[in-house]
Amino acid sequence: MTDTQTDTPAIEYETVRTIGKLVLTTLSLLFLLSLVSLLPGVDRLIPGTPVTFAAVVGAVVTLAIVALLLYLAPALAKLVRSTLEGPTHVVDDVSDIVQLLVVFVAVLVAHRGLEPAIVPLFEGMTWIYDVVFLAIALPPLTILAARVYVSLDPMADLLAERFSTDEPDAKS
After folding, report:
1. pTM of the model as a whole
2. pLDDT digits over 112-142, tens only?
3. Exposed (0-12), middle (13-18) or buried (19+): which is 99, by Cβ within 10 Å?
């Protein structure tokens, strides 16, 4: 009996389990947040503040989701490295792109989810909230754009090699 699995790298059980657990936890938190939003009185203002109870609960859940996404990012990069086949530099670029994309999404989730709890406290200076998150989001986005740009040619070459029937230097 021959082993057909020697060509593809093994995906670690713990990596897949961790990713699955983090995704399920995130979805569970979102589901629980939607249930909490249905509770009576949750849309009332906290005394002495312009913030609702729902906004505070939403902010706590948002922070938990952001933490999960930041924890998930390197695990997803590891999963990509272990499942993709190809030149090491291309696989590393793709895994780094996935990791940076998840970090960027975490920043966007934080911006959206914390807004109802934080923006009312700024009283007319809400632009500060956006500027802070812009400053937080720009570094991962910039690095992501640079990684995508640097990896375009190697990825295009790899795709052409995989799906083309002629040689790279063949003349028609």
Report:
1. 0.81
2. 999 999 999 988 888 999 999 999 999 999 9
3. buried
